[in-house]
Structure formats: C-alpha cells, structure tokens
Amino acid sequence: MKKLLGIVVLGLLFSGSAYASCYEATIMKPSPFMGNNGEVFTLDDGTYWEVGVEYEFLFEFFPKVLVCPNEGFIAVEGKKLSVKKLK
User: Distance (Å, rounded) from C-alpha 18 to C-alpha 69?
Assistant: First the structure.
C-alpha cells in the first residue's frame, strides 16, 4: 500500500503544481471505510469529509490516503474518490 501511495504521490507531483496542496492522512472513522456515496469520514487531522457519487465498497480499516482538497478528491487503494470537506 505504501509503495502504491508513493507512486501516486510522485505521479501527481510531476503532473503539475496543482497537486502541491495534497497531503497524506489516515481515515480514522468509520472503520471499515467503504468509499460509498454520502459516507462521512474523519481524518487523523480531525477534519470531516463526505464522499461524492461513488460506490467502491473498499472495506478498508484505517486506510492511508492522499487528500487533495483543492482538487476535491482523495486517493485510496488505487482509487480516486470525489470528496468535499465538511464544515
């Protein structure tokens, strides 16, 4: 998983500066994280997010993710999910 996330990070960084605001985090709740439409999740930095129109059924426990808030997505287990940050 770490190797895959590293490859994704490098690919995004070399594809343009728009991804410079991406960062790595861990999804803490819910556990397991499914990655389905409307699922609200909490990152280890305390922020809350909602999955967009996605149906991935990932069933991941505390997955490491690449969060790109300016682009409106996270990358988890090789999947790119649309997300929005909740206030």
Answer: 11
Cα separation, 42 vs 62, in Å, equals: 10
Average predicted confidence (pLDDT) for the chain: 86
Domain containing residue 21: 2-86
CA 46, CA 29: separation in Å to the nearest integer? 10
Length reported for the chain: 87
Q: How many domains does the chain fold into?
A: 1
pTM for this entry: 0.78
Count of C-beta atoms within a 10 Å radius of residue 1:
11
20 SS3 class: helix
